[in-house]
Amino acid sequence: MSKQFIAVAFLVTASFAASGAVTVQKVAWKGWKNCYRVSNGDIELIVTSDVGPRIMRFGFVGGQNLFKEFSDQLGGTGEAKFQLRGGHRVWKAPEDPIATWAPDNVPVEIQITADGLIAREPVEPLTHLQKELAVRMGSSGTVVTVTNQITNKGLFPLEFSTWALTMMAPGGRAITGFPPRGRHPINLQATNPLVMWAYTDLSDSRLKFTKKYLILRQDPNNHEAEKVGLFNTNTWVAYVLNNEAFVKQYRADTSKTYPDFGCSFETFTNNEFLEIETLGFLTKVQPGQSISHLEQWSLHKSIAIPALTDSELDRVILPLLR
Fold first, then answer.
1. The total number of structural domains that make up the chain
2. What is this structure's pTM?
3. Is residue 66 a contact partner of residue 56, using CB atoms and an 8 Å limit?
4. What are the tens digits of pLDDT across the range 198-248?
5. Which of 22, 40, 195, 235 could share a disulfide with 250, CB 3.0–4.6 Å?
6. Are 170 and 274 in contact (CB under 8 A)?
7. Which residues contact 308 (CB under 8 A, 6 or more apart)?
8. For residues 169 and 216, what is the distance between their CA atoms, to the nearest angstrom?
């Protein structure tokens, strides 16, 4: 990386006041000296500029981090291989073991905006892609919008989609909904794919299906990988942990082709974390062209689900999506 790029990454002062009540402050966090805390007094998130782009923390001010942290990888930089680390990242889909897993272990440029920031990596030598995350926070409340973007900086067109992956802290449940249900013989057409991987096990006790919902539980004592995907125009997922919920929502397009047999949403778990993932549609990206998709995030307190039934999930979860 050039010295010029490194200089640009840190041409910012220690604290910034954005519009309304949103502030962006340079802080040290978990071993990284060059992180940025975005807060409106109700919620806060942490973006590191020492590696990434990564959003490493999201939670209520003073509260739990709902994102996974790999403690042995925090504060690290310059590693030769990709590091999970935790938090939220953007990847290229469909997944392949080389280009998708390209390392993101060098400093990134931080650009302060009116209500948040943009974190932009240098062009990846391996893929000739450039990834960035743009964060916008409301001046109050718990809503954040995150734009996940990838630019083709190479010489040739490439076909791929954006893939936004959020690694959640252990011990919670991911809950997502199917498209609206109907009745036979009134509704005869297929509505959506339900996608499996070679290691998917539908008998896994961490998985639960109701008529309207899919639930995946993170279990620190279960080392087996589990993954399932689906398509829903109104893609959404809630992760509930310690009576708090992280919700992300994304609008998919039925006229487009999506990776992995048509997934706009995928969820993965093992003994260490649970991941909730949205995917953009496949695009032939020309040199110099960028593709992106936008997620809306929100946080919620006092979330109690006494039973994993359609009626209880309707009562507790659906109001969080409005």
1. 1
2. 0.93
3. no
4. 999 999 999 999 999 999 999 999 999 999 999 999 999 999 999 999 999
5. 235
6. yes
7. 208, 210, 213, 215
8. 14
